[in-house]
User: Which sequence fits this backbone?
């Protein structure tokens, strides 16, 4: 833990029309400093009195903001040592299609993969339609991905039988699925359709991710296609809500992120199957 943070808070202009309590605005300002890496893991926040003077609020308001961020897991406090930043959320960019391994490596962090299961399953009719499978048979790959040693993503991948048959599951501990599909079957991943929505952790997912049951989480559904237009992987990835920040660089005139009502997101409408089905 560092002795002092280099971050210097700025006075906030509070609007009486936005309906937000002052402590919420302050909590957002501190959270933004963390996600933008102005405050790093282990950095100590300025003293509460200094924060109150900088933000132009009472000491009680600052304490409310810190309590809110502590409950979210962003901050921790130790008597006599002050309040410090926990490990910052992983910034996951929504841009160029790439494997998780390459995205993590690009940030200088380390990725470790534990294969929990790799076995044949019967998919639902909706999954069969999504992947244009001839039958209900497919393979399900279940992986727990660790970033810097901490459980990060619980990921299930449905793969067509002919492609899965060529894959050695042991190799998935050190190689990305995209790379293996290319090496074993000549599949070149070219595009994907991905949807992210809020959810909560069930008992099994919470245990694997080292979290509490019903904690907020993000559920990503990604359908990946080869250059020939074949659906080759149907992914679902579950991440604790405070461990990742989804980001994108956007420009006017470009087709990019879009917001949909959950009822209008067909890739996530099939709730007939549990998150993990077998092979464990």
Assistant:
């Amino acid at each position: 833990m560092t002795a002092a943070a280099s971050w210097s808070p700025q006075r906030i202009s509070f609007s009486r029309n936005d309906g937000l309590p002052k402590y919420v605005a302050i909590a957002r300002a501190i959270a933004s400093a963390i996600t933008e890496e102005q405050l790093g893991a282990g950095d100590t926040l300025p003293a509460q009195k200094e924060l109150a003077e900088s933000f132009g609020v009472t000491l009680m308001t600052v304490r409310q903001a810190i309590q809110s961020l502590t409950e979210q897991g962003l901050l921790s406090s130790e008597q006599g040592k002050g309040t410090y930043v926990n490990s910052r959320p992983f910034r996951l960019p929504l841009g160029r299609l790439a494997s998780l391994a390459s995205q993590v490596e690009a940030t200088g962090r380390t990725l470790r993969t534990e294969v929990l299961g790799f076995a044949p399953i019967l998919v639902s009719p909706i999954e069969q339609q999504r992947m244009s499978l001839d039958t209900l048979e497919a393979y399900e790959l279940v992986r727990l991905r660790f970033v810097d040693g901490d459980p990060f993503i619980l990921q299930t991948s449905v793969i067509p039988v002919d492609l899965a048959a060529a894959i050695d599951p042991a190799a998935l501990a050190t190689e990305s699925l995209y790379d293996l599909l290319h090496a074993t079957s000549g599949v070149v991943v070219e595009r994907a359709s991905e949807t992210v929505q809020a959810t909560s952790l069930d008992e099994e997912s919470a245990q694997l991710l080292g979290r509490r049951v019903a904690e907020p989480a993000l559920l990503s559904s990604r359908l990946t296609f080869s250059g020939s237009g074949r659906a080759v992987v149907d992914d679902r990835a579950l991440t604790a809500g405070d461990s990742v920040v989804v980001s994108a660089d956007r420009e006017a005139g470009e087709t990019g992120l879009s917001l949909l009502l959950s009822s209008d997101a067909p890739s996530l409408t099939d709730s007939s199957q549990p998150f993990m089905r077998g092979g464990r």
The chain has a mean pLDDT of 80.
